[in-house]
Write a sequence for this structure.
């Protein structure tokens, strides 16, 4: 005799794709991937490596997580989670995959995409969260339409 798994309704829980913590996990995962996989700044005649992306991505990721968690208090939305997740997966792909800028006779390798993509990701996340917070709540629209 099997015991069926009880279904959760809207009062008792949300699906994983609608919870703002899902977007926060994707943001942190993207920042971790950038920290580990993005190319280093290589400079000087001794070709010293500095993991510049790993040093700079975390403040931007923290700001994006803050935006998502603040917007998530308003109302839960699969659209917000999907949009933010898409943005940060794209940020990680760009930061890791775009070639570095090479300059000078002692070639200096500058990972421009790894420096530029996270701030843009945080700004786009902020705009998405503001749009989500300003949108009418699904609960309000259900009660006003009868």
């Amino acid at each position: 005799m099997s015991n069926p798994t009880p279904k959760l309704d809207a009062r008792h829980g949300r699906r994983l794709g609608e919870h703002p913590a899902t977007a926060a996990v994707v943001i942190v995962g993207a920042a971790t991937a950038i920290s580990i996989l993005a190319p280093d700044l290589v400079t000087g005649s001794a070709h010293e490596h500095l993991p510049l992306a790993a040093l700079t991505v975390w403040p931007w990721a923290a700001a994006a997580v803050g935006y998502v968690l603040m917007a998530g208090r308003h109302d839960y939305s699969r659209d917000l989670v999907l949009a933010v997740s898409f943005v940060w997966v794209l940020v990680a792909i760009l930061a890791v995959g775009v070639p570095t800028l090479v300059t000078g006779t002692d070639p200096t390798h500058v990972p421009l995409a790894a420096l530029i993509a996270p701030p843009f990701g945080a700004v786009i996340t902020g705009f998405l969260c503001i749009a989500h917070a300003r949108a009418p709540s699904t609960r309000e629209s259900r009660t006003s339409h009868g």
About this structure: The longest strand covers residues 41-43. Residues 10 and 60 are 32 Å apart (CA to CA). The chain has a mean pLDDT of 86. The two ends are 43 Å apart (CA to CA).
